[in-house]
């Protein structure tokens, strides 16, 4: 049983890779020639080089595989060139899935995002049926993932693909080498760089639980269905205070209204165009923060047997990993 995993050098993809190895899969990983491969070290995987923008490399990567776990995505909240993100997240996904279909793979698990789902105005947890409004989706990343998921659904219908969609919420835990935008919240809190907060919220889940959810979707998911893989709903202030408690620190923070954060984010983005470094806050991220991004995994619990540990355990593991790997210097 051979499975191709994309994104295995990254945070969630490496967790999916480890989960599949534990479950007895032979794993092939698709990596770019210039990728940071620390998350692959000491794991018995077959490495094939390629790129989601190089469609010929995708056909070679999927050849001889029984299953596809497509986890890779360009996950950034600010990009100087949104066309590159679209080429990877939308066009690359389409090319890879069609290559898998032509190869006759038995099972495809596509990693989408809760970014493709709608949110409830009253802050109650959204589910797979909560309708999104594309015009209110903030940011190139979220819009690209929405477009990709719509395209994947069309491919399922047109070609009767054995494909299951999973929608992870906010993964936290070990192995976030970049780190991801959410990992930076943890790291910035540890470093004392989060003196303020806005009234928003996230759904926090341990990265290993979300990875195991991918295996459950492979085993029990229904083709054409999508499943939220999440954990605990927490306000941003609760997240920051929990990290403080884990770290043995206590900080007083001020609540900044969204209206005051917007001009700050504007200046950060302008500076980023000169430094070419991703800003700590973006206009899109501030617009996203206007709502509580709370979600329910009840469908995955019921149909897949998915379970998630308390969010504090994910935060504990993340804090420990960042410290042990010298990110807090």
Describe the overall structure.
The chain has 329 residues and is α/β, with parallel strands linked by helices. It has a domain at 2-175 and 204-231: NAD(P)-binding Rossmann-like Domain (Rossmann fold, 3-Layer(aba) Sandwich). It is 43% helix and 16% strand. Strands 3-2-1-4-5-6-10 form a 7-stranded parallel sheet, with helices on both faces. β4, α3 (82-103) and β5 form a beta-alpha-beta unit.
Keywords for this entry:
three-stranded mixed beta sheet, Rossmann fold, 11 helices, 12 strands, 16% strand, single chain, 329 residues, alpha/beta
Give the topology:
Blueprint: E1 2-6, H1 11-22, E2 26-31, E3 46-49, H2 55-62, E4 67-70, H3 82-103, E5 107-111, H4 140-159, E6 163-168, E7 170-172, H5 181-190, E8 196-197, E9 201-206, H6 207-220, E10 226-229, E11 232-235, H7 236-247, E12 254-255, H8 258-275, H9 283-288, H10 298-304, H11 311-324
Parallel strand pairs: 1-2, 1-4, 2-3, 4-5, 5-6, 6-10, 7-9, 8-12
Antiparallel strand pairs: 9-11
Helix pairs in contact: 1-6, 2-3, 3-4, 5-7, 5-11, 7-11
Low-confidence stretches: none
Distance between the termini: 43 Å
The general outline is: globular
- Rg over CA atoms, rounded to whole Å, is 19 Å
What is the CATH class of the domain at 2-175 and 204-231? Alpha Beta
The major sheet is characterized as: 7 strands, parallel
Number of strands: 12
Corresponding CATH superfamily of the domain at 2-175 and 204-231: NAD(P)-binding Rossmann-like Domain
The CATH topology of the domain at 2-175 and 204-231 is what?
A: Rossmann fold
SS-based structural class? alpha/beta
> Treating each run of at least 4 consecutive H or I residues as one helix, how many helices?
11
Beta-strand percentage range: 15-25%
Strand adjacency order, main sheet: 3-2-1-4-5-6-10
Helix content: 40-55%
Strand and helix order: EHEEHEHEHEEHEEHEEHEHHHH
Q: Which architecture of the domain at 2-175 and 204-231 per CATH?
A: 3-Layer(aba) Sandwich
The overall pLDDT, averaged over residues, is 92
């Amino acid at each position: 049983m051979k499975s191709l995993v994309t994104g295995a050098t990254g945070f969630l993809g490496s967790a999916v890779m480890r989960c599949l190895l534990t479950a007895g899969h032979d794993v092939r990983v698709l990596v770019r020639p210039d990728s940071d491969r620390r998350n692959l070290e000491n794991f018995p995987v077959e490495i094939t080089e390629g790129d989601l923008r190089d469609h010929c490399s995708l056909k070679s990567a999927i050849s001889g595989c029984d299953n596809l776990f497509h986890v890779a995505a360009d996950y950034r909240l600010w990009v100087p060139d949104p066309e590159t993100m679209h080429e990877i997240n939308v066009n690359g996904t389409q090319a890879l899935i069609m290559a898998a279909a032509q190869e006759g793979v038995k099972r495809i698990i596509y990693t989408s995002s809760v970014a493709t789902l709608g949110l409830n105005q009253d802050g109650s947890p959204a589910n797979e049926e909560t309708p999104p409004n594309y015009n209110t989706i903030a940011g190139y990343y979220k819009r690209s993932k929405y477009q990709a998921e719509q395209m994947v659904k069309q491919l399922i219908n047109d070609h009767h693909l054995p494909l299951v969609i999973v929608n992870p919420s906010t993964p936290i835990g070990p192995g976030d080498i970049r780190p991801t935008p959410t990992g930076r919240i943890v790291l910035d809190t540890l470093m004392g760089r989060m003196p303020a907060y806005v009234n928003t919220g996230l759904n926090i889940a341990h990265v290993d639980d979300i990875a195991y959810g991918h295996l459950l979707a492979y085993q029990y998911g229904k083709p054409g269905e999508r499943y939220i893989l999440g954990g605990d709903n927490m306000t941003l202030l609760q997240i920051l205070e929990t990290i403080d408690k884990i770290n043995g620190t206590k900080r007083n923070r001020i609540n900044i209204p969204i209206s005051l954060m917007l001009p700050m984010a504007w200046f950060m983005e302008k500076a980023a165009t000169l430094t070419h470094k991703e800003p700590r806050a973006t206009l899109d991220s501030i617009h996203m923060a206007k709502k509580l991004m709370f979600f329910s995994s009840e469908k995955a619990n019921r149909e897949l047997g998915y379970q998630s540990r308390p969010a504090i355990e994910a935060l504990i593991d993340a804090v420990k990993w960042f410290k042990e790997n010298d990110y807090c210097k």
